From TrEMBL:
GO terms for biological process: endoplasmic reticulum to Golgi vesicle-mediated transport; regulation of ER to Golgi vesicle-mediated transport; retrograde vesicle-mediated transport, Golgi to endoplasmic reticulum. One of its GO terms (cellular component) is Dsl1/NZR complex. Belongs to the RINT1 family. This is RAD50-interacting protein 1. InterPro entries: EXOC6PINT-1/Sec15/Tip20_C_dom2, RINT1_Tip20. It holds the Pfam family RINT1_TIP1.
Amino acid sequence: MAAPTAATAKSMMKKLTGSLLESVYTSSKGSECLPADSGTGRDYLVDFLEKEVGSDLKSLKNVGDLLEKLREENSGLEKQVVTVSSCVPPKVSAALSAAEEAACSLKDLLQKEQLISNKLHQHLQGTQPWMDNLGQTLNQVDTIERNVKYLRCLQHIEELSAAVQQCLMTSSVWEAIRAVDNMAALDAGLNQSGCSHLQDYLRETLHFWHKIIKDRLASDFEKVLIQLHWPIISPPTQSLTPTANGQEINSQLELLVAQLLALQTSDDLISQRPLASCHVAPSTQPASLATAPSQVPPLCLPIQIMLLPLSRRFRYHFYGNRQTNSLSKPEWYLTQVLMWMGNSSAFMEEKIQPILDRAEAPISAMVELCRGLLCLVQEKVASDASRLLYDDVLFCHLVEEVLQFEKELRSNQSYPQALPGLLHLLLEDATLQKWLTVEKKMAVEKMDAMLSAEGAWSSQYKDISDMDELKTPDCAETFMTLLQVITERYRALPCPSAQLKFLGLQRELLDDFRIRLTQVMKEESRFPLGARYCAILNAVNYISTILGDWGDNVFFLQLQQAAVSLGEEVVMGGLGVMEVGRLASLEGSLFEGLLALLDRLKGDMMGRLLEWTMREITEKAKPYSQDRWLSLPAQQDQSTMTLSSSACPMMLCVRDRLLNLHQVLSFSLFQLAWQGLAERLDHVLYQDVILSNHFSEGGAAQLQFDMTRNLFPLFGHYCKRPENFFKHVKEACIILCLNVGSAILLRNLLKESEEQGTGLASAEDPPPECALNELGVYCLASCDVSILLNLRASWPGQ
């Protein structure tokens, strides 16, 4: 039998593969292990058979074993799948059973809950009458309990009242004070209750016993004070310590002050009650501080009693029809109060303050006395101010006296800044508006008077050279002094908003004065070299200088911050976001707008002044510019160099104008004036004299002599190197006076540089600026130097 070929082997392999696939598919029907028509499965079997059988047909006898092995594996896999599938349904069934049992239990519980709810509702309906009866009983018990408490409280009040009475009968003042304090504490505890009648009864009882104790202690205290020569009306001339039984009096004084301090709590409580206010005499408690800008504690009792004789004296002299009660003389009562403070200071520090310190009372005896006296003055000033709103002269006098009183109170009496004085009375709307109106009215009147005065435009220090550097006219100095006085008046006000209103008034006055200066300047502009025109310029410069200093002043910087924080329209009206930001960062100042207007006015006036001066100098310089520069002899042909005769009028004019400006302008303005004049004169000489003529060697030398030996020294009185302000003329003279060889070299260099610029010469040549700098020429450009070289007439071959 012939050996099978490769083609025959492949054919038999395909048949075997098909039979295997059919066998595996038949045995695994229903499973998803291998799809029947899967090309992937067929490929897998072919690979598997090639691996197990190979191309050797003799090994086909093992196909049966292989098929049997595959069937066993397939059977094992089927058993595993069946086993896993059979385990899942019991677990699901168990879960469903548990859920059904839970649903049944829930249903039973809901039924039980409904049953219990019905029984509870029936029970509540049955017990409702009992609850109603019990509620009525409890309300009755509560009413009885409150009545008992009410009666107990009433009994406690009666017991305290009886205790006070018993203590007063036995002169046990300390025990009586403690009982009154207990009443005050009980009153504070009943403050939130609704027992109004009980509260009224307690307060009446408290006030009754408090007044009795206070009157007794006040009477004894006044007797002791009389023995100590209180009140001290005039300056003390003898020792404050009495000569007879001084130790006993001091002991009584200390005891009474301590007892009055112990009574302070109930006194403070009573002073807050309307009931007490109708029982206390007006003279017992000085005028209230209700008008003060901040709440302050009431005066201590000992000081209140010590103030009684002073209060009676004050009201006797400064109220009613007394001659000392004059609206035109507020200084009488203000000075009197300051004298009382000064005269009483030693007594308060030596007698009262040590007792307060031993009692550990945080009180300054002198400050308390000043507070009490200030109450009297505040009441009087408030009354007078409202009556003087229609009298400008008397109102201004009152304001001046109040400001002076406040200054002496804070400085001489060391009255704390935290406590109110009198200035808050001037901040009432009507009073403050009146003050602003009168301030503006009087300032405008003084402005009119100072501008129309005979010596308005002359300096009062003109005969004192050391003090006349600014050469300020009298009207400007008086005006700024007026503004400074206004600042000093409102500086001490405790309200930044009010201070900003006065600052707005100052800015308005400054702008008004600037407009007036502008009007007068326009009248004098026909002759800017006149004394009045220059005085106006000095005035503008002086005001700008002062405002610049004010912009750096701490007080105005604080006002600037207040204006930013308050957004004050009077000061910041019309400012943009950038300007407000600059004010907030302190880069600008509150006077920045006014300074800009003044600087512009100063620049316009200075420009007009220099223009007028240059017009005159230019007219004098015409003969000099028309001189015969081309025909002047060489320097070696002249014995001595002298000033050109045609330059004399110009030089004299420059000298006279410099002297005149130096005499009439302030130092800073004159610096600007002569420098501006030098700049303009440099331009005129360069354009009209140098560029308009041709120069021989002698003409160039004469020009240089006129400039360096005559013109420049005129300005040498005011600076060390005046030639630096005539750069064009100085450098033009250098070029014109170069010797012929240097001039030829320079001209060739400039020509080569020009050709280099057009690409016709080598780029390796040095720039002409280096050669010009070596000659001392820094300002003139190369083209200007070429023009000047062409103005030279002394070239070889010419």
